[in-house]
Write a structure and sequence with these properties.
This protein is of the alpha+beta class. Helices cover 18% and strands 37% of the residues. The protein contains two helices and eight strands; from the N terminus they run H-E-E-E-H-E-E-E-E-E. It starts with a helix and ends in a 9-residue tail after the last strand.
């Protein structure tokens, strides 16, 4: 996969997660029958961002990437109230294009991979053992912003099923103690 294709696919998957997150929040909070009132303070002017009585439309995102010598990650925050195009900014390692995008490791369990931190060389070809990914959160903030979403960067171990399927092990699911 080429870098441009990887960025486009990341944008689609992240915004699908935002749409799903908004819909789940709407259902879980029973906003059909009891929507929250608009926030008392509104930072932006787009009325759909403050309307809890319906799930807002979510446009396609623009995805930018840059090489970093620091910690790879995804910066993403989206507030419907501003009416602007969502922007996803990836900070990736120098090897991301070759080891992640071209090798087909852009996603593990539907989450974007911004870097492979460790490889499992016990199989050929090598496969990810630990990755840097981003969890996508989407909700309605009745206090100020209304409908909003953001990314939360995480380092996760990758577990493999007997059938060769990759599974992310979230940090809170890791065994603790000595």
């Amino acid at each position: 996969m080429r870098v441009g294709q990887a960025r486009e696919l990341i944008g689609q998957v992240v915004m699908d997660a935002v749409r799903s997150g908004f819909a789940a929040w709407f259902d879980d909070m029973d906003y059909v029958t009891h929507p929250d009132p608009p926030p008392g303070f509104r930072a932006g002017c787009e009325s759909a961002g403050h309307d809890a009585s319906r799930v807002p439309e979510v446009p396609a995102a623009r995805v930018e990437s840059r090489i970093t010598d620091g910690e790879p990650g995804m910066f993403f925050t989206y507030k419907v109230e501003y009416g602007a195009e969502p922007l996803i900014q990836l900070s990736v390692s120098r090897t991301w294009a070759r080891q992640v995008a071209a090798a087909g490791w852009v996603f593990v369990e539907g989450l974007p991979v911004v870097d492979v931190l460790e490889w499992d060389h016990s199989v050929t070809p090598a496969r990810p053992a630990r990755v840097r990914t981003a969890l996508i959160h989407a909700d309605y903030d009745a206090g100020m912003h209304g409908w909003r979403a953001h990314a939360d960067n995480r380092t996760c171990r990758v577990a493999w099923t007997g059938e060769g399927k990759a599974l992310l092990v979230m940090p809170w699911d890791e065994p603790s103690g000595p």
